[in-house]
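Morning, I've got a small favour to ask if you have a moment. I owe you a coffee for this, so here goes:
>
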Amino acid sequence: MIYGSSRLGMKSSNLSLLTPQPTTAAADSAWSYDSTLVGTKYYELSNHLGNVLTVFRDVVNSDAQSGYTVDVSSVADYSPFGVQLDGRTQSAESYRYGFNGMEADDEVSGEGNSYTAQFWEYSPRIARRWNQDPIVKPYKSPYSCFSDNPITFVDPRGDDEYFNHKGQYLGSDDAKTTTARLIKQSDWDAAVNAIPKDDNPFNNDSPKAALTAPKSKVINFQSLEAQEKVMQAMEAKTATDGKETKGRIVLDIVSATVYLEEDLKATRSENHVTGSDFTYKLDDPSTHYVDGSNFTKVILAGAHTHPQTPDKNYYGPSTPENAHDPRYVDTNSSQKSKTDEYVLDKGLYKATPEGTTEELDRGTTNISKSSLKTYSSTHPAP
């Protein structure tokens, strides 16, 4: 391998070059040749996700006096989860690494269809790992990858996950535990910068637990029982006065907790509810706080109820057909805020920032955990 601060390429031996040497100082045009191995170094160009896009090698052209020219060995482009795109991928010879910088296992299911890394085997065609994540996180499938957001993230290695005080995902460490942790951005940056650069690029993606854990807090998520009490209280208020009730999922950076609470200062009506005022810092208008100038409680997602219609049916989440109906603004508000919006109508529905909706199992879905996951994906750290 060829390394700088990370892997730059690889070296093999398969070609021979005649290297020019002058015979006399006076006869610059007179040359003899020594045999030297070239064409043995392959250099890769990759993007911010580590995807190997282009590979070139050192070779000489037909005119010995012209020196070296770049010979492109392979080019590749990928779908978000790593499938090589037809018409945008070609290879004169196989290269060892590809999507996310992982090593290709072409003998398993064909070129570009299987990858291996330190803790997993991965299939880009189904966007799932073959083996279960050795560290189980209750809010994720054990086969999920890249936090379901391959545009922003490389796959966490099954360790503790870190979030800054804005709710943005930072990365993971080498701890074999299952927690999410809260840490100051400056402490995270210091930990990353303190990591020695060694010859294993997998060790350079994340800070060591010993450097970060002392300055971080384990994030506690509201229990399902406490969540249900808040939901029932909001629904009871709506059932009593026939007006929508507003709630929000909040990250409290002082106590390192995430929870659903009712917005008691919301402006309520029969077919609309407006949350109370939020604040933001002038240099960061996308992070909204609910505690004035203290800036310690970040809004991760919203929730609201719908009153009963004359036929006693509750409204559900919006669809493309009714998205502009004032009674169904769920997807519109979710897309504008780039956060999840939950609808509590004796069940549990979710509108996503992508404009989709889904019905969830209220008895098993912890919306505090899923809200942090979505928020960290749509509000990436710089």
Remarks:
- The mean pLDDT is 76.
- The chain has three domains: 2-123, 132-218, 220-378.
